[in-house]
């Protein structure tokens, strides 16, 4: 995927293209910066400012706790080429490049705004749209990571997206998909439609499902099978939204992720809720404040499926 990409000149496999200014243009909405191209094309509704970069780094650290510091789950030994789809702040890609120093790591994302200023010499970050067919060669990568891209992949792209990933894997290569199912659940069943946690979740589904598929995280196993992968393994884990667990590890994860999510909820909702429901920023702020208050209620035992 090289069109419109920033590519390190030191890699002989790639030409260096100047990045089209359209990808760098941002628009400020209620104090947050968004990529104008992404909004106009319905690609992403998430901010691309420093606060979002910090949030993505914090989420990466939470995922490290959830996954016991593993970057790669399947048995991948001495990979030569890795692809990170939707690199965001590039936290995962940087760690993968540092951990596998003899491996070429490539990251692809639509936004250049949250790239780190310095990266390992074996990491190349490219700007491109994952909704378009891949231009990578067939049988090119030993391992592909795709994490938390539900908000960027269009609903009619998911099947071909997974098939694209499979096509560019080497024989015996591995694909790792990690997505959050964005419907707040309750470990004790206390959350119902009277709770703002459930109301916001349902409204979020409604606000994006014309163009996105918020249920895609539930379909990953079947999409991988349809794409021809074998030796599949899938697992759902609870991503707690506060420290309600009596297990110290889970309590820590819940406390950290709850704080991250409370910080991001307003920026996440303001564009889709304005477009779908005509809500003002003040209305979104009131809803977000109620959401944050309820997130802190340990008796509800709230979590996302991951």
Automatic annotation (TrEMBL):
**Keyword annotations:** Methyltransferase, Transferase
Q: Which domain of life is it from?
A: Eukaryota
Q: Which InterPro entries match?
A: Methyltransf_25, SAM-dependent_MTases_sf
Name the CDD domains for this protein.
Answer: AdoMet_MTases
Query: What GO biological process, any one, is recorded here?
Result: methylation
Query: In what residue span(s) does the Methyltransferase domain sit?
Result: 82-173
**One Gene Ontology MF term:** methyltransferase activity
> Which species does the entry assign this protein to?
Morchella conica CCBAS932
Supply the name of the protein.
S-adenosyl-L-methionine-dependent methyltransferase
Pfam families xrefs: Methyltransf_25
């Amino acid at each position: 995927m090289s069109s419109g990409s920033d590519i390190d000149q030191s890699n002989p496999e790639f030409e260096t293209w100047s990045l089209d200014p359209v990808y760098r243009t941002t628009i400020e909405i209620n104090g947050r910066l968004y990529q104008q191209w992404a909004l106009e094309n319905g690609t992403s509704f998430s901010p691309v400012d420093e606060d979002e970069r910090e949030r993505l780094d914090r989420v990466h650290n939470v995922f490290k706790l959830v996954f016991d510091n593993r970057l790669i789950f399947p048995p991948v030994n001495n990979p030569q080429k890795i692809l990170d789809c939707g690199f965001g702040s590039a936290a995962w890609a940087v760690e993968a490049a540092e951990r596998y120093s003899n491996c070429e790591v490539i990251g692809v994302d639509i936004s250049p705004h949250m790239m780190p200023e310095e990266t390992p010499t074996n990491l190349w970050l490219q700007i491109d749209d994952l909704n378009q067919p891949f231009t990578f060669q067939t049988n090119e990568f030993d391992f592909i990571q795709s994490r938390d891209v539900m908000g960027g992949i269009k609903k009619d792209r998911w099947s071909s997206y997974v098939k694209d990933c499979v096509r560019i894997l080497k024989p015996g290569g591995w694909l790792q998909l990690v997505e959050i199912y964005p419907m707040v659940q309750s470990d004790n069943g206390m959350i119902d439609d009277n709770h703002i946690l459930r109301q916001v979740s349902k409204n979020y589904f409604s606000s994006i499902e014309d163009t996105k598929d918020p249920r895609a995280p539930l379909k990953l196993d079947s999409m991988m099978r349809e794409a021809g992968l074998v030796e599949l393994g899938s697992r759902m884990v609870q991503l707690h939204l506060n420290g309600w667990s009596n297990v110290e590890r889970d309590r820590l994860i819940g406390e950290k992720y709850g704080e991250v999510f409370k910080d991001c909820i307003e920026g996440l909702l303001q564009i889709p809720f304005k477009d779908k429901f005509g809500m003002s920023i003040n209305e979104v702020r009131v809803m977000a404040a109620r959401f944050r208050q309820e997130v802190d209620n340990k008796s509800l035992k709230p979590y996302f499926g991951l």
